[in-house]
Design goal:
heterodimer; A: 325 residues; mainly alpha; globular; B: 279 residues
Chain lengths: 325, 279
């Protein structure tokens, strides 16, 4: 019951955020220099007077601003994000088409960065002040400062072009697979480079966070108690320190979901990964602003959903919250 | 202040970072003298590899432009956008955070919901949308980076102001009849400058990364040479000419790393309590 109440209140808040983003989208179209119809049509429609006229009628661009906002919202509620003239498809369908690839990529990158990040951070903290700690800290500092798109390009160059270990382009080989398993393997091979490059920046963030959180937790009284009980340092670190230190990292990881979307734009662009990030880049190239705003809206909604899930997981992991409520 | 400098100087990494930042600044300032010609100008045959010709030490790009000259001129844009967009983020974030923390209650609630909203929205995607719709230019890039960068500033300032609000000197100022504006700007803010400076220095690094990402996607000011643009333009020929994307990337990496090191050094030097963690 508590969980249901919690989820519904968070959901209501999430819907408000998404609505606010729709309103933001709407005002962006109107704040942009030039005719809003031309903005929505992108460069494609700029010469097509009939299409512009259709847009004006559809969104009531000759009516008062509030009516227009109403029409725009009504469209979004019915999952009508407009039509992409360039791609000859409704925006919503285009985005849904590309969404699975992005979920696979960001999901893999998320798991990779969280597992490696927490492990490395814990390892560094356990060896605080020693050369190993300094090595891990320095490497994560470097990854933290590396532009994602550059790391992506360089990894294509090294691991795909020079060493020829892994494919650096696309989602899977063209031209059928024998069976489902073979397809999964093929996609996985294509997934390695993009997921690792996207994940490394976040790995660096989690390493630093886990390390400092572990060091902080190790100073707490319950750790002294555990030590007084005569537990070995290994057991103390694993069972007591890491468990408590990981909570803030999980929270942070959830909040990074939005950053992940931005990273996906860069990664998918370089690796020709057919997700919504790549779609955003295509929309940019073709000045298809309506598609651009559509992708933005869907990715923001995705982040909201993900944040709610993180909150929920946090409640599951942290026993204290259950007691407090 | 002398205490601060002696603490900062003792951190080797922070000092290395400071020296590198100084070198990048020097490069940016010297660019017009080192390479008086426009970095867009063709100077040699295209695709000249690096270290082959002393005039173009880092080679030439697809159109025969000097990569070294591009790097020098690109340093100007990176630093300029990094600093100005951070100032924009401060100009938005500090007042919002200060007002929320000082007045509390409903004002605080409203402003913090507003801030949370901007923290939820995927920031890089928002920056892309802003620059694309308002057309790429130095101004739109700076504004976009500022718009996505201010929420952490607001949250930090709010927290600090909230803590100061309960102190006696603020009550004394209220009793003395000072206006809220005077109390916030003259009494409270000077006391919370340190954490803001630390955050701002780290934000310059983030802003440089953001700017390079936008330019890479073709959303930079089309009339200004930038590191991100150089990598973006060389993306399709990375197999034939690795140096075209390699050198600008190293330039971004080194600059951002150096600024982060300075930022961390500042954090430790400005907060003497934190120095315990490192011994």
């Amino acid at each position: 019951m508590q969980t249901l109440w919690f989820l519904s209140s968070r959901l209501a808040k999430g819907i408000l955020v998404v609505l606010a983003i729709v309103v933001l989208d709407f005002f962006l179209i109107h704040l942009a220099p030039g005719d809003p119809a031309a903005v929505m049509a992108g460069e494609s429609g700029a010469t097509d007077e009939i299409f512009l006229q259709q847009l004006r009628v559809k969104f009531g661009l000759d009516k008062p601003l509030l009516t227009q906002l109403g029409l725009y919202l009504w469209g979004v509620v019915r999952l009508d994000l407009g039509y992409s003239y360039r791609q000859q498809m409704p925006v919503f369908d285009l985005v849904m088409d590309r969404l699975p690839a992005t979920l696979i990529l960001t999901g893999a990158a998320f798991v990779f960065s969280l597992v490696i990040g927490v492990a490395m951070g814990a390892w560094a903290a356990a060896n605080k002040g020693r050369p190993l700690d300094r090595l891990i800290t320095t490497v994560s500092l470097i990854f933290y400062a590396t532009p994602l798109f550059w790391m992506a390009l360089m990894s294509v160059l090294v691991f795909s072009v020079w060493l020829d270990w892994l494919p650096g382009f696309g989602f899977e080989e063209v031209g059928g697979h024998e069976n489902f398993l073979e397809r999964v393997l093929d996609v996985s091979r294509h997934l390695v480079l993009p997921a690792v490059t996207l994940g490394l920046f976040f790995t660096a963030v989690y390493v630093r966070m886990t390390r400092s959180s572990m060091i902080e937790t190790a100073r707490m009284d319950f750790v002294k108690t555990a030590r007084a009980k005569g537990l070995t340092e290994r057991v103390i670190l694993r069972r007591h320190v890491l468990r408590n230190a990981v909570l803030p990292v999980v929270t942070l990881a959830g909040l990074q979901a939005g950053q992940m979307v931005g990273g996906a734009v860069m990664t998918e662009t370089v690796f020709a990964w057919p997700g919504i990030g790549r779609l955003m880049y295509e929309a940019l190239l073709q000045r298809d602003y309506n598609l651009l705003l559509g992708v933005f809206l869907v990715s923001a909604a995705m982040v909201v959903v993900f944040n709610i899930l993180t909150d929920w997981v946090y409640r599951l992991v942290d026993p204290r919250i259950e007691v407090a409520v | 202040m002398t205490g601060f400098w002696s603490r900062f100087r003792r951190r080797r990494l922070a000092m290395i970072g400071l020296i590198v930042v100084a070198l990048v600044v020097a490069l940016a300032v010297a660019a017009p003298y080192l390479y008086p010609q426009s970095p867009w100008k063709m100077v040699q045959r295209p695709f000249l590899p690096p270290f082959a010709n002393a005039m173009v030490p880092l080679g030439t790009d697809t159109l025969g432009r000097n990569v070294a000259s591009g790097l020098a001129h690109g340093a100007q844009v990176s630093l300029l956008i990094g600093i100005v967009s951070t100032l924009v983020a401060l100009a938005v974030g500090v007042p919002i955070g200060a007002i929320a923390g000082y007045f509390g209650g409903l004002v605080d609630d409203l402003l913090m919901r507003f801030t949370e909203f901007f923290q939820t929205v995927p920031s890089f995607a928002l920056a892309i949308v802003l620059v694309a719709i308002f057309q790429p230019s130095l101004v739109s890039v700076v504004v976009a980076i500022g718009v996505v960068g201010w929420p952490p500033v607001a949250r930090l300032v709010r927290g600090e102001v909230l803590a100061q609000r309960r102190r006696e000197y603020v009550e004394a100022a209220i009793l003395a009849g000072q206006s809220h504006f005077t109390i916030i700007t003259r009494q409270i803010l000077p006391n919370v400058v340190s954490p803001i400076v630390v955050l701002a220095s780290l934000m310059v690094a983030t802003a440089i990364l953001l700017e390079s990402s936008l330019s890479f996607l073709g959303l930079g000011d089309p009339s200004v040479m930038s590191w991100g643009y150089m990598i973006g333009a060389a993306r399709t020929v990375v197999r034939q000419a690795w140096w075209l994307s390699f050198f600008p990337g190293v330039a971004i990496l080194i600059t951002v790393l150096a600024i982060n090191l300075v930022g961390e050094g500042l954090a430790e030097a400005l907060d003497p309590r934190s120095s315990r963690d490192h011994h």
